[in-house]
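Work Package 3 (structural annotation) set out to generate three-dimensional models for the target panel prioritized at the project kickoff. During this period the team completed the workflow that converts sequence records into discrete structure tokens, so that structures can be stored uniformly alongside our sequence database. As a representative example, we reproduce one entry of 318 residues exactly as it appears in the project archive.
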Amino acid sequence: MQFGSDTTAPEGVYVSVDALLQLRHLAKDISLETNRKSVALIDGDSRTSFRGRGMEFAEVRPYQVGDDVRNIDWRVTARTQKPYTKLFQEERERPVYLLVDQRSPMFFGSVNQFKSVYAAKIATTIAWAALQNNDRIGALIFSDNGQTDTRARRGKHAALSLIHQLVEYNHQLNSPVAPPAKNSMEDMLNDIRRVAKPGSAVFIISDFHDFNEACREPLSILSRHCDLTAVHIYDPLEESLPADKFLSITNGQQKLNIAGQSNKFLDEYHNSFEQQRLVLKQACGQSRTNFASTSVANSVDSLVHDFFCSRRKRRGKR
């Protein structure tokens, strides 16, 4: 099926600038706190795992020789009869990089919206949150045979530039059937390694349809130096086939009708999807990469609440 990027395309097939601008209200619910130490030298608003002089109290510990006596916590010292000193959460700037997949296989959807549209919405919501946090925003957007690299910049113009680039790449899509592609997932991971500086927060937003063993090494290397999050997007029809529906599948040249398939066929189809997702999840676990898997049937609001906010709550309990 081909639509072209005109205004008559059904809603959810192509994203619009207005739709992405309206996502700014979700940013207030997102915490983009990093797990790794920031190495940026510019002051910013991101909480890091550094301890030093800063704006926010972190904890107290026993006084050590060389500590600044001005930071002694006299209340704890009086209670314990041993000197304790205050430690503060140092705030340092860190860039946020968004790797957004806009290749042909993302141009698919059976409910609500295409994966390509959903990816653009998630990326924009994260960008708005980074803007709110005064982080610099950078991006790599990939099509089948092209890409755009945007260096990390601070400010509203950086977010708006990302939005326009996302819309441009999104509207270039016209078929889920991929031509011979130049950009593979392995290539994308290697490219973001080249761009993202150590200490950056990196979000990879894709369906990861071509994630394989060759991707494990660049994923692991990237995760060693960055706070890495993989957001796996899928359509419900990719996860499971309906048992009571007549389906017709085509690659543009050949057509296959699927109807009345056995439970064994349906189970094998579902298991194939789950196995691929498990491979990705395990690779993320082994490389200490944050992992989220979400269907396009879920609203961006739900993803924000269930993944990003829950991460903030878990860290708050530590």
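The first helix runs from residue 17 to 21.
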